[in-house]
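Good morning,

Attaching, inline, the backbone tokens for the sequence recovery test we're adding to the shared suite. The designed sequence is right after.
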């Protein structure tokens, strides 16, 4: 059975930088509080356009850097919680905009667990031998659902897209193992109240500001610390990995304190954790591929990577990936 190896990366970051100083003018917060409690210094904001515009640019970047034509892509999966529209899928729009004419595809909605869930889903199509080139793009315009009058949430999120290409390999590289979990009892703590079938949009829902992210931070924080560390410990134990043999932890970037708790549980040195939350905030579907993109020059064939995420749902999990290129 072939394994699914990550063989290329692409990303797109909007130009506009929203700093903590600008947020200080919008809500009752301080730069010091944000840095101390989250690690975030700035995030990118897409002023014009939609999630698919960032996603298509990330896919174009990936194709150019990998030296492939977009119409070689067989399947494109988009992890997003901010689709252009409720339907049709953003994956289809991205394929159209990026010129991936042969690709079929669909969206995966698993909030901050979305990229990880999409990655392990995409890998199945490679492992069965059915497809040769599968793209997973994590793309979110979080600013479209952030309430910039709510200091509990508006400091956390940013906009971005990043993509990975999966191709088959007969070497012992690529996605080796994963654990994935979902627990719907977490929904009350992190959700959007209106706009779905439960509470369709109305004048009242708009006036009540129910089309924005609602988060009760504390219970989410507690569950994230336990969930991400437990999933990581499980994947390490199952694969005989230790703090010495893991080259990089690639964590979802929600809060630096959650990342630190996972790192400590793994017994991993700080320099072996990919952290870019200070520059981008929480970009939901894009965080993990954006880390891979930023660390790509340091990655070498055979490196042991543990990817880990926790998000709304709750959704969480971890994946063991052996890096497949770079020397
Ligand atoms: O990726 C999806 C999953 N999401 C996450 O993993 C996020 C998990 N949660 C968190 O990261 C943290 O809970 C937050 C960063 C959202 C909040 O940090 P916290 O340390 O849990 O703070 P808190 O909610 O317990 O609030 C502490 C205090 C409160 O004031 P009182 O009640 O103690 O007087 C808040 O009102 O901090 C206040 N506060 C703020 N103060 C200044 C909340 N937000 C702010 C703010 N600036 N932006």
């Amino acid at each position: 059975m072939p394994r699914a190896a990550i063989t290329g990366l692409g990303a797109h970051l909007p130009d506009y930088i929203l700093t903590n100083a600008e947020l200080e003018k919008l809500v009752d917060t301080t730069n010091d509080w944000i840095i101390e409690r989250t690690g975030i210094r700035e995030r990118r904001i897409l002023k014009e356009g939609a999630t698919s515009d960032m996603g298509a640019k990330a896919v174009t970047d990936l194709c150019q850097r990998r030296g492939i034509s977009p119409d070689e892509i067989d399947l494109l999966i988009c992890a997003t919680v901010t689709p252009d529209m409720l339907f049709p899928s953003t994956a289809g729009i991205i394929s159209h905009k990026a010129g991936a004419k042969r690709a079929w595809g669909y969206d995966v909605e698993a909030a901050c667990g979305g990229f990880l869930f999409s990655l392990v889903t995409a890998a199945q199509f490679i492992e069965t031998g059915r497809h040769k080139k599968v793209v997973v793009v994590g793309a979110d315009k979080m600013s479209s659902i952030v309430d910039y009058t709510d200091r509990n949430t508006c400091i956390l999120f940013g906009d971005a897209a990043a993509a990975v290409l999966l191709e088959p390999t007969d070497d012992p590289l690529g996605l080796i193992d994963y654990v994935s979990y979902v627990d719907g009892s977490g929904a009350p703590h992190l959700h959007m109240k209106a706009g779905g079938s439960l509470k369709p949009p109305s004048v009242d829902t708009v006036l009540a500001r129910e089309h924005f992210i609602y988060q009760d931070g504390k219970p989410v924080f507690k569950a994230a610390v336990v969930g991400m560390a437990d999933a990581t410990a499980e994947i390490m134990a199952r694969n005989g990995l230790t703090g010495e043999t893991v080259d990089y932890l690639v964590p979802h970037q929600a809060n630096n304190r959650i990342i630190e708790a996972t790192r400590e549980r793994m017994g991993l040195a700080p320099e072996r954790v990919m952290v870019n939350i200070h520059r981008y905030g929480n970009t939901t579907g894009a965080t993990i591929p954006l880390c891979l993109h930023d660390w790509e020059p340091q990655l070498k064939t055979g490196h042991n990577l543990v990817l880990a995420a926790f998000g709304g749902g709750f959704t969480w999990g971890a994946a063991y990936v052996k890096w497949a290129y770079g020397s």
